[in-house]
């Protein structure tokens, strides 16, 4: 009986571990593009004392200083996209993450999920999953590749009013969809 329980426990742990490592799993895969900003980078930014005198810019800088993680994975591979979608579904089942908005437009599907923070305009975690982004890029005349499927995960004290600006600065594929959250 103990061996059976141990076996079940190990299977559950391995499923959770693989679900949490979707970004690392594909970070060196030639069929994917990967971007990660480490917590150390945000910690370094937090040590800078920047004051511009502009309330919007200062709010944006403060939000960046309060981020813990910023990861983006994109690919044209249907196999990788299936793993991305499975990861999102497992996060919805196993964590406090909940779907807050779905957008379907011009053959592009975008799902936003979040873990809410202390007030309505802040979240502790934001996940965006995009299917069909290459069609959007082609329709807009953008010269981008490897972006048909995009998975974005941001953790920290995230101000929804500022997040679209951050994705524009970092030039995240699909970042324009974040403007829909405002």
Unreliable stretches (pLDDT < 50, length at least 5) are 1-20
Annotation field: number of helices: 7
Let me know the number of strands. Answer: 6
The helix content, as a percent range, equals 40-55%
Q: Which series of helices and strands comes N to C? A: HHEHHEHEEEHEH
Instruction: State the secondary-structure class.
Output: alpha+beta
Mean pLDDT: 77
As a percent range, the share of strand residues is: 25-35%
Write down the domain tally.
Answer: 1
User: How would a crystallographer describe the biggest sheet?
Assistant: 6 strands, antiparallel
Terminal Cα span: 53 Å
Cα-atom Rg, whole angstroms? 18 Å
Shape: globular
Side by side, the strands of the main sheet go: 1-2-6-5-4-3
What does this structure look like?
By secondary structure, this protein is α+β, with helices and mostly antiparallel strands. It has seven helices and six strands, in the order ααβααβαβββαβα. The chain has one domain (2-181). Strands 1-2-6-5-4-3 form a six-stranded antiparallel β-sheet. Mean pLDDT is 77; it is low at 1-20.
Write the layout of secondary structure elements.
Blueprint: H1 2-20, H2 22-26, E1 32-37, H3 39-47, H4 55-65, E2 67-75, H5 78-94, E3 98-105, E4 108-116, E5 122-131, H6 133-139, E6 149-159, H7 163-170
């Amino acid at each position: 009986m103990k061996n059976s329980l141990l076996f079940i426990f190990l299977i559950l742990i391995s499923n959770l571990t693989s679900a949490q490592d979707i970004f690392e799993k594909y970070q060196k895969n030639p069929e994917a593009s990967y971007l990660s900003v480490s917590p150390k980078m945000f910690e370094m930014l937090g040590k800078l004392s920047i004051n511009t005198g502009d309330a919007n810019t200062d709010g944006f800088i403060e939000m960046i200083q309060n981020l813990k993680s910023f990861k983006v994975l994109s690919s044209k591979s249907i196999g990788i996209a299936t793993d991305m979608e499975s990861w999102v579904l497992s996060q919805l089942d196993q964590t406090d993450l909940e779907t807050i908005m779905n957008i379907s437009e011009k053959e592009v599907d975008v799902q936003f999920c979040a873990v809410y923070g202390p007030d309505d305009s802040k979240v502790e975690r934001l996940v965006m999953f995009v299917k069909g982004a290459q069609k959007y890029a082609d329709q807009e005349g953008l010269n981008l590749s490897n972006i048909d499927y995009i998975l974005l995960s941001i953790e920290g004290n995230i101000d929804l009013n500022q997040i679209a600006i951050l994705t524009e600065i970092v030039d995240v594929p699909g970042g324009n969809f974040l403007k829909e959250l405002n």
